[in-house]
Design a protein that fits this description.
The structure is a single chain. Helices cover 10% and strands 47% of the residues. It has a 16-stranded antiparallel β-barrel. It has a single domain, classed as Porin (Beta Barrel), CATH 2.40.160.10. It has three helices and 17 strands. By secondary structure, the protein is mostly beta strands.
Length: 370
Amino acid sequence: MVGMTVRLCTIALSVALAGFASQPVLGQTPEGRSTAASLDRWIDLQTAELETRYRVIENSADVVTTNHWQHKQSLRAALKFDPAGRYRLNLFAGTGGSFTGSWDSTGVGTGEPDWSPRVRLLYLSAAPIEGLELQTGGFAPIRGESTEITTYDNDAYMVGERVTLRRPERLFVDELSVTAGFIGELDEPNVFERLDGLGEHNYTQILVAKRFGERVGLSADWTSLFGISTFRNGLRLQLPEARVIDGLRFEHYARVEGDAAYGFAITVEKRLTRRIVASGGFSDLDGAYGPLPGDRYGPGHKLFTITRFTLAPQWAAHVFYGHAVTNDFPVSSARRFDIVLTFNALRPATAHNRRRTQDPKSGQGRSAGL
């Protein structure tokens, strides 16, 4: 029933786009206007990043399985069909070859050199009235206040349809989102190879989110994947008065069908200086969770830390370390160290806009940080 409802909304989206396309174009570029301003009427360029990282992974048998240098490029943009950008074609292109991977190998260390950029996400969106958004195509899962630790990797993708309602003045919640679609082809990030999955359905999600000012965020969702139901909830707190920490996030899941189990993660964050932010925490995912959550974490008991450095307006770095503890089953990532350097080509010109832009991979928070 939910899937049918979302698909009917998709038909409405198609009709809305078709009707809009028949209207004359508004806001023609006046004579003498700059090329950049003209492009801005049609193109919303949101993310353009170059990244490189070195990582080392050791499994629970004390075997180093990964020790290499990687590179990554990503671009997120949208084609606006109207000046306000209420109707748009959204695109995210980048490197990487899997559901949980957006990095290619330089050939230094383990792995052969590779460079395989693809269009990973491509979807139509329409906001015909204030507070209502319709999406169809290849997009990312949404997580609410949870992160990739207990949901899906930040590189995750799917195809389907989504309806999102943001009318807090009419509803108790700030956001209500319903998604129906297909998650599959975990080794095929190319969206053009996966769009035929729009005719299939193995994923349904209903998510609600509520915020109390800037201090508190709550979310809860029910997700059915492969016929197995999972309930998730997330809590984010900003606590600057605590002084010891600035923020805390707690996320929890309960799988109530199939191999029933539950797990959680807790993360705290502290700004050490104007340019350095440290976070860390503990995650506990059951051994049958599968390969879909963030590959830095995965099943088992894990301690982790992330330290982020703002080096310059366009440059940032972060260091990650994860360590598995007291697990009674083998884990592929018992100890992991990453050091990442990021160049953000758009930051000087668009930093004030990008703070309002969702993460290019997940639609939500980019990492386990707050």
